[in-house]
């Protein structure tokens, strides 16, 4: 069987439809930027700026900014400058970056996800969300970026790990592409991925247990009680601390990821950002048969009020996500 490249897959989907062609061109440019970022990451400590914190600067979300966060954003701005993208919202920029005034789409990105893992040689990645843009409908770019996740035409993430992979959906299932160094192309590796509906594996930063709401504490307690507890089965725990890597594991063998709100200062709505972390991950998750919630609401239905808004996030195997929601 012949291999399907990302470009062939996108061309086939886009046909002659102008909006789809704009989306396809955007995904191609994102993948191109991803390859450049992956190469930089792969140099590890040989790269001059590897793992360095950038002065005392914090990004728009108040997190310490690493040199590589900013370099990754620059790669994305350069690449998307060659696509029909009107505005780019990024974790690393307070306000949207204007690109092509004639652009048909707006894009939101987490340029480098898992920044705390940069210098530990653990998988990190890039997350993206693509929304339709119409100047007449959205004279203010922020309004276009504040559409709910259901409006996404395409979304996904890249993981820079042992393999560079692209997990993405164009609204008809979720596909996994793997970068092939021999041909310098992304090759379709898994079509219409299905996340198993049930699981015995969860991921959460358990060091925050004392800060959690009672519902989160009860759910984890019940998992820890194992076979003899109310869940009647033994659970396993995994936490990479890079959303992209934890998500890729869930796309591979199922599981659930939780970053709930907690009582620490600034964490009432958890840590993750709605438009460039939760929404794209929720989109590819639902397209793979999984579910994503903030505990009480479907993530994709939430209407964002701010570009850097945070949201509690629970996603993964559908039945387990529903179970968790029942605790809230
Ligand atoms: O360090 P914590 O609190 O466990 O948070 C880990 C989470 O934070 C994140 O690193 C946030 O992303 P950034 O690295 O883009 O800020 C997620 O990837 C990860 O799941
Ligand atoms: Mg992130
Ligand atoms: Mg980031």
TrEMBL record:
CDD domains: FBPase
A GO BP annotation: fructose 1,6-bisphosphate metabolic process
Domain Fructose-1-6-bisphosphatase class 1 C-terminal span(s) in chain numbering: 195-327
PROSITE patterns noted in UniProt: FBPASE
Residues reported to bind Mg(2+) 2: 110, 113, 277
Nucleus is among the record's keywords: no
Binding, Mg(2+) 1: 91, 110, 112
Chief location: cytoplasm
Keyword Cytoplasm: yes
Any one GO molecular function term: magnesium ion binding
EC assignment: 3.1.3.11
Classification via InterPro entries: FBPase_C_dom, FBPase_class-1, FBPase_N, FBPtase, Fructose_bisphosphatase_AS
Cofactors that this protein relies on: Mg(2+)
Boundaries of every Fructose-1-6-bisphosphatase class I N-terminal domain copy: 28-190
Top EC class for this record: hydrolase
Cofactor note: Binds 2 magnesium ions per subunit.
GO cellular component labels: cytosol
Enzymatic reactions: beta-D-fructose 1,6-bisphosphate + H2O = beta-D-fructose 6-phosphate + phosphate
Quaternary state and interactors: Homotetramer.
PANTHER family per record: FRUCTOSE-1,6-BISPHOSPHATASE-RELATED, SEDOHEPTULOSE-1,7-BISPHOSPHATASE, CHLOROPLASTIC
Protein name: Fructose-1,6-bisphosphatase class 1
Organism: Azorhizobium oxalatiphilum
């Amino acid at each position: 069987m012949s291999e399907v490249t990302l470009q062939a897959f996108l061309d086939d989907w886009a046909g002659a439809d102008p909006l789809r062609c704009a989306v396809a061109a955007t995904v191609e440019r994102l993948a191109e930027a991803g390859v450049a970022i992956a190469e930089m990451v792969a140099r590890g400590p040989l790269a001059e700026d590897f793992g360095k914190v950038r002065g005392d600067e914090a990004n728009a979300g108040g997190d310490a900014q690493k040199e590589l966060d900013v370099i990754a954003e620059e790669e994305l701005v350069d690449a998307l400058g060659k696509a029909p993208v009107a505005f780019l919202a990024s974790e690393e920029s307070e306000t949207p970056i204007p690109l092509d005034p004639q652009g048909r789409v707006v894009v939101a990105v987490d340029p480098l996800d898992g920044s705390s893992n940069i210098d530990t040689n653990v998988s990190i990645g890039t997350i993206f969300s693509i929304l339709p843009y119409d100047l007449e409908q959205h004279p203010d770019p922020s309004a276009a970026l504040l559409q709910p996740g259901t409006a996404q035409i395409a979304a996904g993430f890249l993981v820079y790990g042992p393999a560079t992979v692209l997990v993405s959906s164009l609204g008809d299932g979720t596909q996994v592409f793997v970068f092939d160094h021999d041909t310098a192309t992304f090759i379709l590796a898994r079509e219409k991925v299905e996340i198993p509906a049930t699981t015995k594996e969860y991921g959460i930063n358990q060091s925050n247990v004392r800060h959690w709401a009672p519902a989160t504490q009860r759910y984890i307690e019940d998992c820890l009680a194992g076979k003899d507890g109310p869940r009647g089965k033994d659970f396993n725990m995994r936490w990479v601390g890079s959303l992209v890597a934890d998500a890729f594991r869930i796309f591979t063998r199922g599981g659930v990821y939780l970053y709930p709100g907690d009582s620490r200062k600034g964490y009432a709505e958890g840590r993750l950002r709605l438009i460039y972390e939760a929404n794209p991950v929720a989109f590819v998750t639902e397209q793979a048969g999984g579910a994503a919630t903030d505990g009480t609401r479907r993530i994709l239905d939430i209407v964002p009020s701010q570009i850097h808004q945070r949201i509690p996030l629970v996603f993964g195997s559908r039945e387990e996500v529903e179970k968790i929601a029942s605790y809230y």
